[in-house]
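SEQUENCE WITH STRUCTURE:
===
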Amino acid sequence: MPVSSKRRLVAEALRDAIATGRYVSGERLPGEHELAERFAVSRGTVRAALADLADDEYIATHGGIGSVVTFDGAALDPRAGWARSIAGSGAEVVARTLRIERVTDAELAGVVGADPELVAVDRVRSVVDGPHVSYERSIVPRIGRLDRAVEDGLVDGSLSATIEAAGLVPVRAEQWIDVRPLDDAEAAVLDRTPGTPFLHSRRVSRTASGAFVEAVDSLLDPERFRIHMRFQSTTGQDAR
């Protein structure tokens, strides 16, 4: 197998482990020697795979401060899609798409530096045979497979997969989090009482070159979701 293929396989295996919560945010990854033995590759291949993960911000190699949303203790990675991450918690959660339509939003476009012709995707997630736990309202560029989602639906029912099919790779993101009461419309979607406090997350993601990928407002049930803060002052290979 070519070295580049081995590098990709190692990176993908570690990416999956982080996305599904096997390595929680801030946890130190195994050393290069241990990973090389585990995957039967050279330490150089492991080092290259780790560099790829660092470039994609799946791991941190320097000190800093960060935060991550968790569901029942499992870290949720927006780049891999929350559905995949939630599956790693052991909970059975399903997502239902409420809306996919083309919209014009000059105000948001001005803020994120995008074309005002956009696509809106609203989804609600529910525990199987249980309550709704999140209400997510996403705005994405009107390009390629994302534009066609209005007629064709999401790829495999996943917005993350549809974003990938459109050729966009979210690498950088900013996130703002607060707590606010549900208004009447939000409460109706979530089958809760108006005024119930929910976590509110606002995230804007971009490609490595800074191109706009997604702006998503999420209302999260505080009984299942938490915000985990990470403070790190030492160097090393840690899961984000």
